[in-house]
Specification:
Number of domains: 2
CATH topology of the largest domain: Dihydrodipicolinate Reductase, domain 2
CATH superfamily of the largest domain: Dihydrodipicolinate Reductase, domain 2
Number of helices: 11
CATH class of the largest domain: Alpha Beta
Structural class: alpha/beta
Shape: globular
Radius of gyration: 20 Å
Distance between the termini: 13 Å
CATH architecture of the largest domain: 2-Layer Sandwich
Mean pLDDT: 95
Bound molecules: NADP nicotinamide-adenine-dinucleotide phosphate
Largest sheet: 7 strands, mixed
Strand content: 15-25%
Strand order of the largest sheet: 3-4-2-1-5-6-7
Order of helices and strands: EHEEEEHEHHEHEHHHEEHEHEEH
């Protein structure tokens, strides 16, 4: 297929390149786009040197699938131009996710929504990284027992905020380790090293951050449960990569622990770690599945409410891998 990556030099874009190779995706031509500052630079793909370009009106001529990971503004400007060209845009930004006419897709759950996109092109939205791992974990419980409510607290790494934020974490950590006085200076709520920041994005008038709102709204849309009771607290933690989530879920139909574990073990894209094994952030870094551990019943709730720890690589299943799986679903529909 003729493929484009918009935002090829970024954290998600680099993972698209890695995964196209790893998954032996059928690439005929590959066009790489980034900002003007990187125009003309070279990147390697399958022993071929590719030149980074900046976007123009003709960039999507003959492109069948374009993976967009250059932020909301670029998507708003360029994704409709690509879509008019019959390109399938798989967009990682939040620009179109809540648009009623645009499917928000996690292939394990709702790949059926993208039938016919391959012929006519159009925009398909890739959900927020924290949403993807949450819905992959919730889906088997939803189909097996029904969901009454979900409460989630996230522990999100700095790679989720892009390359600059990750570099800053490294610099800040180094400066504190080299000079203790730097810690005293680091009282800002934006200082991520050795800190957990309980706000990702702006707060709305109800006090929820944009990240929390995305998690709540997108989960309802993907699971097709508009009335699901769901709350979220999103926290940035000073890890490099991988997001963790403490999830409390109340089921409509009570279940035994064995039934809950069996349902989760059969869930697509999910791996359940049992006994003392933990799905911690370092463990999920570089892995493709969503990992569960610490599954336990809420005392006194008689199998209705369950707690669990859900973790995944936010750059893989939380972004590029999910995008690539959407593309694979399109190809399979031939
Ligand atoms: N990081 C995650 O875990 C994650 C997960 C899910 C979704 N997302 C979403 O994916 C998108 C990218 O995130 P990221 O973490 O990869 O960010 P990033 O590391 O900051 O990368 C941003 C990319 O956008 C490119 N870009 C900037 N201006 C451009 C322009 N005018 N034309 C073309 N490309 C341009 C940058 O190119 P230069 O290098 O030339 O500046 C870079 O390749 C965001 O919308 C983000 O919300 C991220």
């Amino acid at each position: 297929m003729n493929i484009a990556i918009v935002g090829a030099t970024g954290m998600v874009g680099q993972n698209f390149l890695k995964l196209l190779k790893e998954k032996h995706f059928p690439v005929n031509t590959l066009q790489l786009f980034a900002s003007k500052k990187n125009e003309g630079k070279k990147l390697m793909f399958r022993s071929q040197e590719l030149t980074i370009q900046s976007l123009n009106q003709n960039s999507f001529n003959n492109i069948e699938i374009a993976f967009f990971s250059a932020g909301e503004e670029i998507s708003r400007q360029w994704a409709p131009i690509a879509a008019q060209n019959k390109t399938v845009v798989i967009d990682n930004s939040s620009a179109f996710r809540m648009n009623n006419d645009i499917p928000l897709v996690v292939p394990e759950i709702n790949a059926s929504l993208i039938q016919k996109y391959k012929e006519k092109g159009g925009i398909i939205a890739n959900p927020n990284c924290s949403t993807i791992q949450l819905v992959v974990a919730l889906n088997p419980l939803h189909t097996g027992f029904g969901l009454e409510s979900v409460h989630v607290s996230t522990y999100q790494s700095l790679s989720g905020a892009g390359q600059k934020a990750l570099n800053l974490l490294k610099e800040e950590s180094q400066s504190i380790l080299n000079d203790k006085k730097a810690l005293a200076l680091a009282s800002s709520e934006h200082f991520s090293a050795f800190n957990c920041i309980p706000q990702i994005g702006d707060l709305n008038e109800d006090g929820f951050s944009t990240e929390e709102t995305k998690l709540m709204q997108e989960t309802k849309k993907i699971l097709n449960l508009p009335h699901l009771k769901i709350t979220a607290t999103a926290v940035r933690v000073p890890t490099f990569n991988g997001h963790g989530e403490a999830v409390l879920v109340t089921l409509k139909k009570p279940a035994e622990k064995k039934e809950v574990i069996n349902a989760l073990m059969e869930g697509q894209g999910l791996k359940v770690l049992q006994e003392k094994h933990l799905s911690h952030q370092r463990f999920v870094d570089g892995r493709n599945d969503v990992y569960l551990s610490r599954i336990r019943a809420v005392p006194g709730e008689e199998g209705k409410s369950w707690m669990m720890w859900v973790a995944a690589d936010n750059l893989r299943k939380g972004a590029a891998l999910n995008g690539l799986q959407i593309a694979e679903s399109l190809i399979k529909q031939d």
